[in-house]
Design goal:
Layout (H helix, E strand, L loop, with lengths): L11 H28 L4 H10 L17 H14 L1 H20 L2 H13 L4 E4 L15 E5 L2 E12 L6 E7 L14 E7 L5 E4 L2 E3 L13 E12 L11 H37 L1 E2 L2 E2 L4 H29 L5 H25 L10 H14 L4 H15 L5
Parallel strand pairs: 1-4
Antiparallel strand pairs: 2-3, 3-8, 4-5, 6-7, 7-8, 9-10
Length: 401
């Protein structure tokens, strides 16, 4: 059978990278993922394997020790990893977003200081926008930075940091009114700070506390945390790009590529759900024949496979658009929206095909059923994606009356 979600036009190097990642997923992730997930255990051995493969530096330029690959290559690798276990793709994604922001917006000193160690996986990144009182409304951020000599003093509480405990570098978005008079639009008075810390929980540096892991329905293994800043002192040379007031744009650029990543995760989870569903449908017998021979199940499989293909095509298109240097917020929003919604539907159909066994923790589909909902809200909810899509469509199809 031809495998779903193939990508045309890949180079030999891209095909070799994907083949290596696929083998790693099949041998090192899928056999242990469900056990680790049920124990909510950090997959250290898997992470060490990804480090050896060089995946933490996949998009970091070669001059800084990375592989210098495209967003498309990265997204296709994420799709493969999420097929094995979505939590592992989350460990890489936040790291990738911080590395991307440094590559695009960092000063030369910041790039030279961080990127080589990030490419090696010795420094791992997390980023933080959300706060307890806000989610997608980034303009409502209340955490702040106040200039004090050659340093800034940061105060506030951040929420939903993936890799909050295991990371050693966090890109934090806060308000910085210094140099921005009263009445300045909120998005023009925000700054991204590069905060270095020790991995772990508790007070990880003076003024910075990571309270502990948030207990979640799914997306386990990876640590999701709060971050509390109370008089945290950060040198002025750790303002991303060296200039205040640009943080909102820097973060949105990172989130834009992050949405391609979430779309890729949705594609990977949906692929795995289809694989589980089509296999079980050929093993389970009712009324004297495999349930795959019942028309009702064949219809489900047909719908599932079509959704996997459609989501993959949109994800690839969004990645290629960004790689070409063009604006891709429309394509990324569409891909993230469609892939996450289709992922939820494909997983639910695979769950239904499994019948009562889908409700058992002995079956992998039970884990996927709890993981898929995270994609509906990660990197912006479906409603936020539709707002982005709608506004961009009105720009492109403006009626001249």
């Amino acid at each position: 059978m031809a495998r779903l979600a193939q990508t045309a036009g890949l180079t030999d190097v891209q095909q070799e990278i994907l083949s290596t990642v696929r083998d790693f997923v099949d041998k090192e992730i899928i056999p242990v993922a469900t056990g680790l997930e049920h124990r909510d255990e950090y997959p250290q051995q898997i992470v060490d394997g990804l480090k050896e493969l060089g995946l933490f530096g996949l998009m970091i330029p070669e001059e800084y020790g990375g592989l210098g690959e495209s967003l498309l290559t990265y997204a296709l690798c994420v799709e493969e990893i999420a097929r094995g276990w979505m939590s592992v793709s989350g460990i890489i994604n936040t790291h990738f977003i911080v590395a991307y922001m440094l590559k695009q917006h960092g000063t030369q000193e910041q790039k030279e200081h961080f990127l080589p160690r990030m490419a090696a996986g010795d420094v791992r990144g997390a980023f933080s926008m959300s706060e307890p009182g806000l989610g997608s409304d980034v303009s409502a951020i209340t955490s702040k930075a106040v200039k004090d000599g050659d340093e800034y003093v940061l105060d506030g509480q951040k929420m939903w940091l993936t890799n909050g405990g295991t990371s050693s570098l966090v890109a934090v978005l806060v308000r910085s009114d210094e140099g921005h008079p009263e009445g300045t639009a909120p998005h023009k008075s925000m700054t991204t700070f590069l905060v270095e810390k020790e991995p772990g929980f508790g007070e990880v540096r003076p003024g910075l506390t990571i309270p502990g892991k948030i207990d979640k329905m799914g997306y386990k293994g990876v640590d999701t945390t709060e971050l509390i800043m109370d008089g945290l002192r950060v040198p002025a040379d750790r303002v991303l790009g060296g200039v205040t007031g640009r943080g909102f744009y820097q973060m949105m650029d990172g989130v834009e590529v992050g949405r391609v990543n979430v779309a890729a995760r949705g594609c990977g989870v949906a692929q795995r759900a289809f694989e589980l569903g089509v296999r079980y449908a050929q093993q389970r017998h009712t009324f004297g024949k495999p349930i795959a021979q019942h028309q009702a199940i064949q219809f489900k499989l047909a719908e599932m496979a079509t959704k996997v293909e459609a989501a993959h095509a949109m994800m690839v298109n969004a990645a290629r658009k960004k790689d070409s240097g063009e604006r891709n917020d429309l394509e990324a929003g569409m891909a993230k929206y469609l892939a996450s919604e289709y992922c939820k539907e494909v997983v639910e159909d695979a769950f239904r095909i499994h019948g009562g066994y889908g409700f058992s923790k002995e079956y992998e589909i039970e884990r996927l059923y709890r993981e898929a909902p995270m994609l509906l809200i990660g990197e912006g909810t479906a409603e936020i994606q539709k707002m982005i899509i709608g506004r961009r469509l009105l720009e492109e199809y403006r009626f001249q009356g």
